[in-house]
């Protein structure tokens, strides 16, 4: 995802009414010049979209750009989520390799890794997911991931049952560093980790003196009933609807028979349609197509027309 400076969108004039402040005084007109104008309200952007679209990652990217990173104390909070991300994805990948190597040797890992794989399986069965992964296991994870057969199985076999997060390969590649004693997550690590958003989170930052409030909402179906609460005060400047382009080839967690892109399209259509909107229809809705880099990698190995939504897509040139 590119790091692009956020600028205030050109929005309908009525959204900025009152933005320059108002002057109120009980004194005479001659005293009005001494009254400080009220501060302009912040630009409030509400991020909506289905789960796995990358909303929280987008927020972290913007904060890195406009706040200059994240303090150590806050980065430490992500230690456990990073461990969970690694171990959960590793378990899925190991199951996937064990299933497909039986029928095709090109998906098998090297025989020299047999002992290491046994240690990994034992650790996954008995290890505590709430404590740091030790260095020995981290070294094995990285060796396992570097095996050509493992990577071939990961990238070329499309089966929603064994789907891992896009960030998993990043953590596999950095497993030894992450599992070393004294490890503190870097800003890049924090941005990559998968953290399911529940509830409503707000972040504030400034760009050239302008205050912005980002409201991040959970995208899972159980979280969507909370969306309308953000519009109750009438102070929302715009909606930023985030959809993952890479989702054309990935099934939804809640229903693997529906691709993430299809779910995003249906949700956007229902939410942004003027006829169906349950909030002020004058509020602009901006569509942000995310995960383009992952999309570019996916189209190399998967047919874009396999997604029902893109069945009629034709490549030009």
From TrEMBL:
Protein name: Uncharacterized protein
InterPro entries to which the protein is assigned, alphabetical: Gprotein_alpha_su, GproteinA_insert, P-loop_NTPase
GO biological process terms, semicolon-separated: adenylate cyclase-modulating G protein-coupled receptor signaling pathway
Lineage top rank: taxon: Eukaryota
Record: residues binding Mg(2+): 56, 197
Any one GO MF annotation of this record: G protein-coupled receptor binding
Coiled-coil stretches: none
Amino acids binding GTP: 216-220, 290-293
GO CC annotations on file: cytoplasm; heterotrimeric G-protein complex
SUPFAM superfamilies linked: P-loop containing nucleoside triphosphate hydrolases, Transducin (alpha subunit), insertion domain
The species this protein was found in: Lotharella globosa
Keywords of this entry: GTP-binding, Magnesium, Metal-binding, Nucleotide-binding, Transducer
């Amino acid at each position: 995802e590119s790091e692009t400076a956020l600028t205030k969108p050109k929005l309908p004039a009525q959204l900025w009414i009152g933005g320059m402040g108002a002057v109120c005084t009980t004194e005479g007109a001659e005293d009005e010049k001494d009254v400080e104008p009220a501060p302009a309200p912040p630009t409030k952007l509400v991020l909506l979209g289905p789960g796995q679209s990358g909303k929280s990652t987008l927020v972290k990217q913007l904060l890195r750009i406009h706040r200059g990173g994240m303090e150590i104390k806050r980065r430490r909070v992500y230690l456990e989520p990073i461990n969970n991300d690694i171990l959960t994805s590793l378990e899925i990948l190991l199951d996937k390799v064990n299933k497909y190597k039986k029928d095709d040797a090109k998906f098998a890992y090297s025989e020299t890794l047999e002992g290491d794989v046994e240690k990994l399986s034992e650790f996954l069965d008995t290890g505590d997911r709430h404590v740091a992964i030790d260095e020995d296991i981290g070294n094995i994870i990285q060796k396992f991931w570097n095996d050509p057969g493992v990577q071939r199985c990961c990238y070329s076999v499309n089966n929603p049952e064994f789907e891992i997060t896009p960030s998993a390969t990043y953590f596999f590649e950095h497993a030894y560093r992450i599992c070393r004693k004294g490890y503190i997550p870097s800003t890049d690590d924090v941005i990559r980790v998968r953290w399911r958003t529940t509830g409503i989170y707000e972040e504030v930052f400034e760009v050239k003196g302008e205050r912005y409030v980002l409201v991040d909402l959970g995208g899972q179906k159980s979280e969507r009933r909370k969306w309308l609460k953000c519009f109750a005060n009438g102070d929302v400047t715009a909606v930023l609807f985030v959809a993952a382009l890479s989702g054309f080839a990935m099934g939804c967690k809640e229903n693997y028979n529906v691709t993430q892109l299809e779910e995003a399209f249906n949700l956007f259509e229902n939410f942004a349609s003027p006829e169906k909107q349950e909030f002020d229809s004058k509020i602009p809705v901006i569509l942000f197509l995310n995960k383009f880099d992952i999309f570019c990698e996916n189209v190399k190995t998967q047919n874009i027309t396999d997604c029902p939504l893109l069945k009629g897509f034709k490549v030009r040139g």
